[in-house]
Amino acid sequence: MGCAGGWLYYRYVGCTTGTCAVTSSLWLSTGFGYILGSLLYPVLWPGRGKRQDCDRAE
């Protein structure tokens, strides 16, 4: 998801002059999108990946 966001940012926002460090390169923009998406995933979806039956009292 983050890679797609990085590519979309590069494609539609980007840097027309080529002087921007992150957005002038497709690979850097996609890489930073991946890292940002990896960091934000647990914040946006906090319950993902946990077993649902762990909370049951037996």
Give a verbal description of the structure:
This protein has 58 residues and is an all-alpha fold. It is 52% helix and 0% strand. It has 2 helices and no strands. Helix 1 crosses helix 2 (26-44). It is elongated and about 40 Å long. The mean pLDDT is 75.
Taking all Cα atoms into account, the compactness measure Rg is 17 Å
Mean pLDDT: 75
- Classification by helices and strands: mainly alpha
* Amino-to-carboxy terminus distance: 38 Å
Largest sheet: none
Low-pLDDT segments: none
The run of helices and strands is HH
Instruction: State the total count of DSSP E strands.
Output: 0
Give the count of helical stretches: 2
Key traits:
single chain; 58 residues; mainly alpha; 2 helices; elongated
What order do the helices and strands come in, and which of them pair?
Blueprint: H1 2-12, H2 26-44
